[in-house]
Amino acid sequence: MREIIDKVLDTEQKAEALLKEAREKAALLRNEEERKGADKIKDAKDKAQQILQDKTTMAREKASEDFSRAMVEAEIKQKTLFEENQEAAKNIISDVLKIITVPEFRKD
What we know:
The chain has one helix at about 1-100. With about 110 residues, the chain is mainly α.
């Protein structure tokens, strides 16, 4: 009888040791998988950040190009408008000068 009890106790101890070892291995595996998952998340965040930075840089460059193009177009339009209306402006200035410089009795 004593021999059976000793075998049962021995078997229980072996089972406990195996369970402890299995728990430790499971904890190590879980920790390793969590680390791998965290690394993948960090890599994904880094890639997303780089993509965002690239898109932002491209958008700024495009906005700068669009602004430069718009400024050139505005300057061209302004110059064209000035040239097209230069003769009318000269006539208005001449009329104003006549009004100012010619006495009232000579205006007819």
